[in-house]
Amino acid sequence: MRDILAYDFLARALAASLLAGALCPAAGVYLVLRRLAFLADALAHVSLAGSGLGLVLGLPPSPCTFSFVLLGALVVERLRAAGRVFGEAALVLVMSTSLALALVLFGLVRGAGQELGSYLFGSLLTVAPGDLKAMLAAATLVAAFLLFFAKELYFISFDEECARAAGLPVGRLNAAFMLAVALAVFVAMKVIGALLVSALMVVPVLTAQLLAGSFRQLFWLSLALGVAVSGGGLVLSCYLGTAPGGTIVLVAAAAFVLAQAGTAGARALRGFGQGAAPRGARRAI
Amino acid sequence: MRGTVWVAALFLAAVLLLAFASGCRAQKPAPAGEKLVVAATVFPLYDFARQVGGEHVEVIGLLPPGVEAHHWEPGPQDALNLRRARVFIYNGAGMEPWAEKYAGNLAAGGAVVVEASRGLDLLPVGEGEDGDHAHPGSFDPHAWLDPVLACEMVRRVAEALAAADPERAAAYRQRAADYTAQLEQLDREFRERSRKFARREFVTSHAAFGYLARRYGLRQLSLAGVYAEGEPDPVTFRRLVDFCRREGIKYVFYEPGAGSRMAEALAREVGARTLVLHPLETLTPQEMARGETYLSLMRQNMANLSLALEE
Q1: How far is CA A279 from the centre of its chain?
Q2: Residue B266: its pLDDT value, please?
Q3: Residue of B nearest to A115 (CA)
Q4: Contact across the interface for A112 and B238, Cβ inside 8 Å
Q5: What local confidence, expressed as pLDDT, does residue B131 receive?
Q6: Rounded to an integer, what distance in angstroms lies between the CA atom of residue A92 and that of residue A36?
Q7: CA distance B46 to B59
Q8: B259: contact with A, CB 8 A cutoff
Q9: Which CATH superfamily does the domain covering A2-274 fall into?
Q10: Residue range A69-78: average pLDDT?
Q11: Domain total for chain B?
């Protein structure tokens, strides 16, 4: 661990992966509950197109990517809220269109093949001090929103109609939530790449779901798991010489398998010992 | 009934295919005074054909300015251009895997086909190069970056032009001799400059400079492999950081284009600066517009290497 922090680039990589590890599952909890897990994937591809546009126009990639993702989030929310397209089909529309746009844009620039790879799979080793500051700012915004509106978001996630009837500004909250997800995607892009962003948003939440007994537990456990797997994955990749993004997701998947096996085993044991009806581990959801 | 339709369709397709193939074979001899059409792949071969052919040839550079050479393949328009060419020059050694397919067809159609790197003393890939994975049985294709090997390539280009256009053979050979004299001058300059280098190791983003390094007794360390693929893993990157710190490396080389991110990250980590080292596979549109040549870019490479390695 000490010899990791002796390198500035690894220290920054670690900071970035911890940020993404905390932020992604925090937003991901609501995505999973609302059956919008695919949304992160779609927005990641939108940001890919944004990066491509930045490259072609010679603009700084971060602001370009960022504004594109925000735009994509609003488009998706509009399509979803208008109800003229099924939520999931709207995501496919946005995702494939922006992936196609990204392919065309990256094809226009020399050396972009290599760049495209770093956007698809993340580029943890090249996190610059400026990148880290932008990521920190985005993360602070998202965290503030998620914590401040936790109750409202929770309500909407379980029953949007009821929340509306209760007088919550559901439309505005949904739009703001989409923007928060977009920001989280923006942070995670650098860490884990467009293709794997959704894994970091969803897999820790699924794991926590097996263990948590309440929504509050689910939220904080997801967050803790996200931090643990992304920090652990990066450290592991430093010793194994594997791709950091892939290693992080594999560690997250391994945690899920362990939790699944562990809870199943515990339930079997309890059922065997007491002869009682198994208590549903997923009772909370 | 359906069966007969299928048989008829197949028959028709076969007839069309035959007609098309024989159409491709019919090669018109160029009328006197008309330019010899030459198609070349990577930029150095394009430039060599231009220098040797002079006003007698029309050279088609197949790789458009600004593309990533290792991942390019010809589209329909390029295939039409290729059919027009009476000389086709490609590098070989794995630089243009698609070219071998075209080479056979073009040669059968009467064009003169040159594989410029064939039989040269090629470097196997992955032999003692840091940051590189072993590709057994494959070679580093960037042979043109060694001016001595470039001379041999120029001679081959001249012979090909002479074979396709025997009337002007003497002119091509003369121009090739003049041009190789300039390449030999470049080699002498490199030799002299490299004698003054205080260090032998240089760090690049893309491992394209093995031949240059071998010729002048230098050593190349690189972030990505010979085919410019992917990003290094943390272990490889850390090894390069350690190396740069130990050796006090002041400059990290990258190639023009968009892929300089890793070089910048390495330079930032070790407090070095970045400099261009041009692999010459393709030029950017700006470089084309500036009228850069093999010689001008190699001299620029020499100047930047001197900057990094002297002192």
Answers
A1: 30
A2: 92
A3: B259
A4: no
A5: 42
A6: 12
A7: 7
A8: yes
A9: ABC transporter involved in vitamin B12 uptake, BtuC (1.10.3470.10)
A10: 86
A11: 2
